[in-house]
Every structure is written in C-alpha cells, then in structure tokens.
Write a structure and sequence with these properties.
binds 2-acetamido-2-deoxy-beta-D-glucopyranose; 14 helices; aminopeptidase; 2 domains; metal-binding; alpha/beta; disordered N terminus; Peptidase_M28; 8-stranded mixed β-sheet; Aminopeptidase; 3-stranded antiparallel β-sheet; binds zinc ion
Amino acid sequence: MLTVPSLLLAIALGGALGAPASQSEFDDLSIRTIQFPSYHEEKLPLAVIEGLQFSPALPRPLSSESLNAARASFANISSVTGTSISDEAIEELQGRYGRRLWGPGYMDITADSEVEARSLEERQVTVPNFPTPDPSQHPELTPMLAKVTASEIKGYVTQLSTAYATRYYRSTNARAPALWIQSQFSSWLGSSQTKLAENSFDQPNVIGRIEAKSGDPNAPIVLLGAHLDSTSQTPSTKAPGADDDASGVAVMMAIMRILKGSNYQGTYAIEAHAYAGEEGGLLGSQALAKSYKAAGKNIRGMLDFEMVGWQPNTSTNSGKSSTISILSDPVTAMSTHMTSVVKAYVPTAERRSVACGYGCSDHYSFYNQGYPVVCIASYGPNDSNLNPGYHTTNDTVDKLSFDRSVDFVKAGLAWIVEVAA
Ligand SMILES: *[C@@H]1O[C@H](CO)[C@@H](O)[C@H](O)[C@H]1NC(C)=O
Ligand SMILES: *[C@@H]1O[C@H](CO)[C@@H](O)[C@H](O)[C@H]1NC(C)=O
Ligand SMILES: *[C@@H]1O[C@H](CO)[C@@H](O)[C@H](O)[C@H]1NC(C)=O
Ligand SMILES: *[C@@H]1O[C@H](CO)[C@@H](O)[C@H](O)[C@H]1NC(C)=O
Ligand SMILES: [Zn+2]
C-alpha cells in the first residue's frame, strides 16, 4: 500500500508524463474517468465506484437526504482524492448489485477520451445484407449440431467458476482464467491461431481465430464474444460468476471446438474473443474494439453471449427447450436477423426480446466503434426471471441448466454458417 502523499504524487506524475499503464491505475484510490448513459463524464476513485455498486440498495427514488448520506459515506476517500460525487453517479451506481441491473452501468473511458465526441453524432453502423436464414441451404450444420452436448458446456463452466476463487479483473489471480481459455483455444485451433491481447490491468483478452477459406488474413471477421471476468459482493475473494459469464464463454468455446473439429471454414474469418474487465466498465472489449478500428479491421457482425445458463421453468416456457432473449438494441437490423436465425434453427426455444440499454455488455464497445453487433442471453436486464444469484457469490454452477444452454451453441453455430458462409 502506498502512503497517501506518494499515491497522489504517482497520480500527478502519471498524468503529467502520460506514463505507461501499470497496476496502480487500478488501485482503490486510482481515479477513473467514467461515462454514464447520459454521456456525462465523471472522475471517480475506484473505491467509490465499487463502494456505491456493492452497497445495499436505498429506496427509490433517492431523496436529497439519501444522496447526501451516500456522499458522506465516502467522505474519507473523497477528501483524500479531492473528487466529488454527483447525484447522477449515486443514482446510477448506488446499490446496483442489489438492484440486479445488467452491466456495470457506466463505461470506463479513462483510456479513450474520444468516446464522448463519437456518442454525440449519429453512429453509422452498416449492417451487411445477410441472406434470409434458411437451414436447407446449410447441410454442413447438421453434423456440427450432433456434436453439441450439455456436458461440454458444463465442464468449461465448472473449470471457470470453481478453479479460480474469483475472476475479478483486479484480483491477484486475474490472469489465470485467461491463460486457461488460451490453452483450450490453442489445443483446438493451434497456438498460431490463439492470441492474448494485454490490457492495462493484469488480465488479457483471449482471441481464437479460424481463417477464411481463401486464407486472406484481411478477410472480414465474423466475431463471437463473451466476458471472462466475474464479480460479486466480495469480488476480491470470491466471485464464481458461473452464469455471468462463464456460461457465455463456455458456449463460445464449444462453438469454436466444434467448428474446428468439423474443419469448417467460411468465406469470412471467424474469431472468438473472451474479454477481460467487463465488470470494470467494459475495459477489455473497449481496448480491443478500439485497436481493431485503428487497424482498419472489417467486422461483418458480432454475436455476444451474456448469461446463458440460468434457465428456470416459467409460466411462458412450458414445453419449450430453452429461453433465448435476443436483445433488441443497439442495432435493430442485427437483432431482427438474429431473431430469424433462432426462429429458423432453434424453433423449440422460447424467444424473448428486451432492450439492453447503454453499455450493458461488451458488444456495446464494438458498437461504439461502428461495428454491427447483437447480444443474446437467457434473460435481459430488469427481467424478473433474471438469475437471483446475479453478481453474488450464489452465481454457482449447480444452479444452471446446461441441457437448455445447448440451444445457445446451436443458435451460435447457425448464426456462424449464415453470416460466415
Ligand atoms: C473510508 O472509510 C471506510 C469505512 O469506515 C473504510 O472501509 C475505508 O477503508 C476508508 N477509506 C480510506 C481511503 O480511508
Ligand atoms: C423444469 O421442468 C422439467 C419438466 O417439465 C423438469 O424435468 C425440470 O426438473 C424442471 N426444472 C426445474 C429447474 O425445476
Ligand atoms: C424495470 O422494470 C420496471 C417495471 O417494468 C420499471 O418500472 C423500471 O423503470 C425498470 N427499470 C429499469 C432500470 O429499466
Ligand atoms: C444466497 O442464497 C441463499 C439461499 O437462497 C440466500 O439465503 C442468500 O441471501 C443468498 N446470498 C446472496 C448474497 O444473495
Ligand atoms: Zn456479464
């Protein structure tokens, strides 16, 4: 632990010299620039951001008394860092875990001051003219679907949610789950087709890739995504994150193993990304999306998987094989297309449609860079059926229904053959 004066000095020097990223950028008292759904930006210490999120939810609407009490509870930190806390920050972050709202509720844009400018213009996202989903055009899918099993998904979720006490991006062992995913990708795809993309904290993004049939390294990319980090009310010690989002990573891993095991290649390249630091404000995906944009990479479409394991019996899914929520925003044409894919290829699933909102998961980072994106989940934010263990130490593997999660592997494989063919 740094003493306060040397910490302040480190912050001042870091700012003045534009020092390279280091662990200390993510200490309790480090100041992050975060952007709220209104696009208001605010500089807050990490301990305040997390303290507001983890605190018990106050009655809504907040009163001036509760706003002031929340501010006062962080007065010791604010007085050290010289920062203030706006009403909006308290409104968005306070009790967020207790309120079971999706995503961090902000984007951490400390590394990207251009985000605000982009948000004020109409984003121009070009969606390719995908053909109407048609299983009869894709006989190559049939043998791949035969390889989908619940036990494969459960195995990956078990590893991710039990072999590491936590996958929180600030925890001391944050790198280990990324290295395990890398080892799995590498065993199927080969080490040259598997990469780590380092972040300014000690948890890299993991990238697995299948080249286009043409071998063209610049072929447009069809992208699968899910986040490898986890959180809870005690993230530094325990955060199994089995549903959020080991389940999404597991589905993505199964898809890549099956594609490669079937020697599938498309007209386009296929990549799978396991993102770091989603719970810290979409950190890993923002960095990667920005680097892809800067490198001029063409992404034909992105499919993000968020929490696909919690599949309770409900009044609306009786007789259905699963529940798949297709998030309706932020790119309507992508959501409409994904809905058609699920309808055509997984007709036994209950389909739901719900808005996700600002920054709710990593697809938003790619959307911010102008790429066409869509996200699927069991249940969207603010759904009464959302996993009650969400963002707690109760988000464990024993609560999930992998016999139903297989539908997400099927939907993902179908989406791949439709958009990468
Ligand atoms: C501020 O006070 C809280 C509660 O008493 C304590 O947990 C925290 O460590 C303090 N933080 C600093 C920076 O003094
Ligand atoms: C849901 O219902 C099915 C059959 O209707 C049953 O086999 C299964 O155990 C139920 N699942 C849960 C989590 O209650
Ligand atoms: C969640 O849903 C309830 C009931 O539909 C609604 O009143 C509330 O505004 C929603 N909250 C958010 C954050 O969308
Ligand atoms: C975890 O689940 C148990 C049993 O349902 C419940 O009593 C407990 O409050 C839950 N813990 C949290 C942190 O939600
Ligand atoms: Zn998540």
